[in-house]
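Quick one:
INPUT:
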């Protein structure tokens, strides 16, 4: 696996560089419309744990309004989502800034999605194994339900990838990802825009 991970890193750098050139005009257009539609930064930045739990800053195009409440009431993700944000998510254009994370070695094209830093204390030792590989833009969990699967299943998919990482598996995930983007399915959960929060209650269930 070690030899393949080295080859994978080389391929990540090559394809990320090429895609940055190919999608440069798309990214420029996305940045302009985001800025015109709502106030706030073009990019959404957030700390996430990478390989071996090392913290890095992930970058995505902002798809939500910066306001978190209206008339004193908290706004849901659906209410905060901008019109252009919905389009960017459906087409996965919001993920393009992560190409810079790939060039820096913080992410890969394929791997378990990097989750929130505050989830780290909630993981079981087995679940922590998801950090044995570099996190990715797309992974085994994403092509098997994306945000529509529950946390337990998602972690099972992530661990399966860690144990089976190979060129064949990465190519399979890549092709399935393209199909999902084209068909625009599985972007959001049925009852919300983003994956529901991972809680202590869920973590205790996994320990049983």
């Amino acid at each position: 696996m070690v030899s393949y991970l080295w080859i994978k890193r080389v391929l990540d750098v090559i394809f990320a560089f090429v895609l940055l050139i190919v999608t440069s005009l798309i990214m420029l257009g996305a940045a302009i419309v985001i800025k015109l539609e709502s106030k706030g930064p073009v990019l959404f930045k957030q700390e996430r744990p990478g390989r071996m739990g090392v913290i890095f800053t992930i970058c995505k195009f902002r798809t939500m309004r910066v306001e978190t409440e209206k008339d004193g009431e908290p706004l849901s993700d659906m209410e905060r989502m901008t019109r252009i944000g919905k389009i960017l998510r459906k087409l996965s254009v919001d993920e393009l800034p992560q190409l810079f994370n790939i060039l820096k070695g913080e992410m890969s094209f394929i791997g378990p999605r990097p989750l929130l830093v505050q989830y780290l204390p909630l993981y079981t030792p087995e679940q922590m194994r998801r950090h044995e590989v570099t996190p990715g833009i797309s992974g085994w969990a994403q092509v098997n339900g994306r945000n529509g699967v529950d946390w337990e299943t998602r972690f099972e998919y992530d661990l399966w990838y860690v144990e089976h990482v190979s060129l064949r598996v990465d190519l399979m995930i890549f092709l399935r990802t393209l199909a999902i983007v084209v068909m625009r399915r599985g972007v959001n959960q049925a009852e919300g825009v983003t994956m529901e929060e991972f809680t202590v209650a869920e973590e205790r269930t996994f320990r049983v």
